[in-house]
Design brief:
Distance between the termini of chain A: 40 Å
Strand content of chain A: over 45%
Structural class of chain B: mainly beta
Radius of gyration of chain A: 13 Å
Largest sheet of chain A: 6 strands, mixed
Order of helices and strands of chain A: EEEEEEEEEEE
Helix content of chain B: under 10%
Shape of chain B: globular
Oligomer: heterodimer
Helix content of chain A: under 10%
Strand content of chain B: over 45%
Number of strands of chain A: 11
Radius of gyration of chain B: 13 Å
Order of helices and strands of chain B: EEEEEEEEEEE
Distance between the termini of chain B: 37 Å
Number of strands of chain B: 11
Chain lengths: 110, 114
């Protein structure tokens, strides 16, 4: 069974702090996505990474795909209350199905 | 922008009722998916469809069926609702092609079965 493990499961920090969320698997993925989900809403796609070692930046968010394409990280610099939400990573091995992690719930206090 | 809409945001049904959840996407995507999301378990795939009238079981298809008569519409059916089907149901669609299968989600339907 393919699994994507996310850590930490829950994170509560002060505005202005930095944080990193991790997504790990024993499987190799052809692509990996990061989503953010706000309460009562569906997940919204943030980024896709496809190349081992790839780094993508989205304003204060930095996404990295591991060299072996088995893991990924999301780093947020100077977190803001608007970053609060559930962050999901999702991996695809080339077929129709995507494997989702259970998510990291982030709460940024003003 | 891709838009995926779901027929209801909140739904309350009684045990044994037949429940229909509708999903419509406007980007001509080939693939459509139904997930349920439960705390601590993440998103679990119920069914998916890669073409009209085609359907494939996901990881937890028991107690559910689906219908895709038109490309833009994918329906999830709970034949006889049970309390353990109380959950958040998310529909998604994606374009077939390229190295990634980025999924676009609807707002979700929170179903409560009493």
């Amino acid at each position: 069974t393919q699994l994507l493990e996310q850590s930490p499961q829950f994170l509560s920090i002060q505005e202005g702090e930095n944080l990193t969320v991790y997504c790990n698997s024993s499987s190799v993925f052809s692509s990996l996505q990061w989503y953010r989900q706000e309460p009562g809403e569906g997940p919204v796609l943030l980024v896709t990474v496809v190349t081992g070692g790839e780094v993508k930046k989205l304003k204060r968010l930095t996404f990295q795909f591991g060299d072996a394409r088995k893991d990924s990280s999301l780093h947020i610099t100077a977190a803001q209350p608007g970053d609060t939400g559930l962050y999901l990573c999702a991996g695809n091995t080339g077929g129709f199905k995507t494997i989702f992690g259970a998510g990291t719930r982030l709460f940024v206090k003003a | 922008d891709v838009k995926v809409t779901q027929s209801s945001r909140y739904l309350v049904k009684r045990t044994g009722e037949k429940v229909f959840l509708e999903c419509v996407q406007d980007m001509d995507h080939e693939n459509m998916f139904w997930y349920r999301q439960d705390p601590g378990l993440g998103l679990r795939l119920i069914y998916f469809s890669y073409d009209v009238k085609m359907k494939e079981k996901g990881d937890i298809p028991e107690g559910y069926s689906v219908s895709r008569e038109k490309k833009e519409r994918f329906s999830l059916i709970l034949e006889s609702a049970s309390t353990n089907q109380t959950s958040m149901y998310l529909c998604a669609s994606s374009f077939m092609g390229g190295p990634s299968y980025e999924q676009y989600f609807g707002p979700g339907t929170r179903l409560t079965v009493t």
